Amino acid sequence: MAADSIKIILDKIYKQAESSLEKRLLRDKKYLANIDEVCAKKHACTRLLMACLLGKIVNPLVDPRKPYTQITSDDSFSGRSYDEGYLSDFITKHQLPCNKTTAFLTPVFRTINQPLALDITFESRADETVSATLQLLDDVANGRIDAKVLLAEIIRTLIAIRNDDKARLESLLQSCRQNESDLPLSSTDIIHLIQQHLQCKHSSRLPVLVVAAAYQSAEKKLGERIRPLHHHTAADSQTGAIGDIEICLEGDDKVVTAYEMKHKKIEITDIDLALSKIVSINGKIHNYIFISTEKVDDAVIEYATSSYQKTGTEIAILDCLGFLRHFLHFFHRLRGEYLDVYQSLVLHEPNSSVNQTLKETFLTLRKNAETME
Fold first, then answer.
1. Looking at residue 127, what is its pLDDT?
2. Positive/negative CA dihedral, 75, 81, 87, 90
3. Cα(first)–Cα(last) distance of the chain, in Å?
4. Domains of the chain in sequence order
5. Structure confidence by residue, pLDDT tens digits, 221-279
6. Which helix (H) or strand (E) holds 317?
7. How far is Cα 290 from Cα 323, in angstroms, rounded to an integer?
8. CA-based nearest residue to 48, from 5, 112, 2
């Protein structure tokens, strides 16, 4: 089937799902419980299930439990092709709350060469979600549920979750606006607020946003600009990036400062990898900065410092909150703007890198901090 025809199928199913928000398309409670389990967890299972269902809709002769070409049977197919070829753009277009990357490269589903039958064993922390997914695939394979109806109900559920998430964020934003004061939070209060946010679970993306917000809020005063951020899970080898954050001088596209975030203890091998990047690029990097969340050994700091004489690039290792503390006191009059920029970055990140809970937590922390003022 032509690519445009498959996109039309998805658009029609989306319209059906959107028009049925007040009424579920399936009635059997056992099916609905499994659908809710799969959708609510925002796990790779959601995309896997959607890809399998789309494959079945496009070609009714395939078995939705066999989305792997390695199975080499007449009724197997490439679920990854449907996932990457059609669902990626579809999910992004409609801002659906599920993984932004293909399910077929996740550890759970990457190396399978057998049907996704009910008795297959996975090593996964999401056992209930995986079991619900396998059961729904079995229901479709055995004709108990129509693939198109199930996909429509899954999309309907995701739309409802998306709308609820947006409504909660908007309610919290309204609360924050009502607490706005002519006097911004102090630099110390902002540092404490960000520190609390960084201590939350699944916060590995936040240090990038802490530094990015500093450059964005002070861009006009610095004479430097930050390049657009890459996706949280994208490898530097794929994007061609020098670091997690890249800074250029105003009016120039050459990277002069690069930041690399580390949520582990920095070792000499990390410095060596940075050096290999520095010497391999065209143009001179003025400084390469590690932002670390762990204490760094003196020997590693000395090794990083010694590289300056060899490369002309200064390598520094900074603590995330230390960086923020220095910035906010140096640019004290920008502290309110900084917090607004950080909030905007947090709220506009995909849920796959900054989840809904982290977004809501930040707004709640900010509201509480400003209320105490």
1. 85
2. negative
3. 61
4. 3-163 (no CATH), 184-372 (3.40.91)
5. 998 999 999 775 554 555 567 899 999 998 888 899 999 998 888 999 999 999 988 88
6. strand 314-319
7. 11
8. 112
Tokens of 235: 């490898």
| 5 has a pLDDT exceeding 60 | yes
Q: Which two tokens stand for residue 358?
A: 């982290």
Exposure string (b/e) for 93-122, b if CB count within 10 Å is 16 or more?
Answer: ebebbbbbbbbbebebbeeeeebbeeeeeb
Would you mind telling me the total number of residues written for the chain in this entry?
A: 373
pLDDT tens per residue across span 271-290: 999 998 888 887 789 999 99
Contact 263, 283 (CB under 8 A): no
pLDDT at residue 372 is higher than 80: no
Give the whole-angstrom CA distance, residue 108 versus residue 53: 19
Does this model's pTM top 0.90? My answer is no
What are the pLDDT digits (tens) for 28-50?
A: 999 999 999 999 877 789 999 99
Structure-token pair, residue 38: 């799969």
d(CA 277, CA 281): 7
